Amino acid sequence: MRLGPKNRYPFVTAVHWFAFNPEGKVLLLRRFKTGYMDGSYSVPAGHVDGDESVRAAMLREIQEEVGVQLDEEDLTFAHVMHRNQKSEPYERIDFFFKTENFTAEVQNCEPNKCDQLAWFESSNPPENMVEYVVKALHNVTQKKYYSEHSEG
């Protein structure tokens, strides 16, 4: 990959989706056999592929993970997080989108990576939830659009 005349610091770019049902509960999935935070709850998420917009990546990940086909107008930008995990070689930029009043039926399309889909009170997420996703959820519900997160 050509970076131009100067070498630029590379970031991993990821997308995350908060689906809120009409009661305000948030859809969470429990990670399973992924090698990262297995047994912890998170949200449908993934990496942005080359030659793919952030919104297109989010729509693709939603379809791949929970079997729902949404349109771009179904997604509302909710938050961006600059994340630094000391255990990984690259820092991350995480884009969070939301869909409110979500009523479509979801299914676990990746049982090799997820062993449960469930709805939780957004104000009282499970204790075994990925730390930066909890922080993002709080920020989204508080309408805070930017944060930074660092993990040891």
What does it look like?
- It is built from 2 helices and 8 strands.
- The chain is of the alpha/beta class.
- The chain has a 5-stranded mixed sheet.
- The longest helix has 13 residues.
- It is globular and about 50 Å long.
- 28% of the residues are buried.
Keywords:
5-stranded mixed beta sheet; 3-stranded antiparallel beta sheet; 152 residues; Nucleoside Triphosphate Pyrophosphohydrolase; alpha/beta; single chain; 2 helices; 36% strand; globular
What layout of secondary structure does this protein have?
Elements (H helix, E strand, L loop, with lengths): L10 E9 L5 E7 L9 E2 L2 E3 L6 H13 L9 E10 L5 E9 L14 E8 L9 H11 L4 E6 L1
Parallel strand pairs: 1-6, 5-8
Antiparallel strand pairs: 1-4, 2-3, 2-7, 5-6
Strand order of the largest sheet: 4-1-6-5-8
How many separate domains?
Answer: 1
Structural class: alpha/beta
| Architecture (CATH level 2) name | Alpha-Beta Complex
DSSP summary, beta strand count? 8
Distance between the termini: 29 Å
Number of helical regions: 2
Average predicted local confidence, pLDDT: 94
Rg, rounded, reads 15 Å
What is the CATH class designation? Answer: Alpha Beta
What is the helix content? 10-25%
Order of helices and strands: EEEEHEEEHE
* CATH superfamily caption: Nucleoside Triphosphate Pyrophosphohydrolase
